[in-house]
């Protein structure tokens, strides 16, 4: 499959790593704030188990999402752009072809 | 097994229900406070997953612990006394035999 075989130059690797880390930090920071907000609003047992369910889902989600293998990066970035953890402009430095693929996938 | 066959009079049932509910409310209240404290102290991702692990364990623990079947109540109360969610004096009204069993089991 073409996307999986895409090669990454040294400069692209740097751009990718920085964008990846930035998105990750953003999402984690936002998630921690949300968890603290939910915890602060716990008034009954169901709220606590609901926080537990939320954490279970997010943990699974984050563990799967941030996969820094080059063969997956196009898809990873498309998802991060779609979910607004990353702006497409933060990926400037990648080839036009990669940017177009990321943008197209992010709109699916 | 003798303990399992123990019968509960109407008065004993009332004492048991009240003590059971009281211990449950105490433990849940304490747990909610602890979860809020842990959430408030989240500074990095590991703290959040550690809170998730804690909630997983507690949910499993609480689901299993509060079993209001009369055939299990002696064991349930023994555990609650052992864990200090209940004082043996709050079970006054049960037969001396039951109290002695609960106390003995709570010290194991």
From TrEMBL, chains A, B:
One of the Pfam families matching this protein, by short name: FRP
Species of origin: Brunnivagina elsteri CCALA 953
Entry superkingdom: Bacteria
GO cellular component terms listed in the entry, alphabetical order: thylakoid membrane
Protein's name according to its UniProt entry: Fluorescence recovery protein
């Amino acid at each position: 499959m073409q996307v999986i075989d895409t090669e990454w130059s040294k400069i692209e690797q740097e751009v990718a790593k920085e964008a990846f880390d930035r998105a990750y930090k953003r999402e984690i920071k936002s998630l921690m704030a949300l968890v603290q907000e939910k915890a602060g609003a716990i008034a009954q047992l169901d709220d606590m188990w609901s926080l537990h369910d939320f954490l279970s889902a997010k943990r699974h989600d984050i563990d799967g999402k941030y996969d820094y293998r080059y063969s997956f990066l196009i898809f990873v970035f498309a998802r991060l752009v779609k979910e607004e953890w990353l702006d497409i402009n933060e990926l400037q430095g990648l080839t036009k072809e990669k940017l177009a693929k990321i943008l197209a996938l992010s709109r699916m």
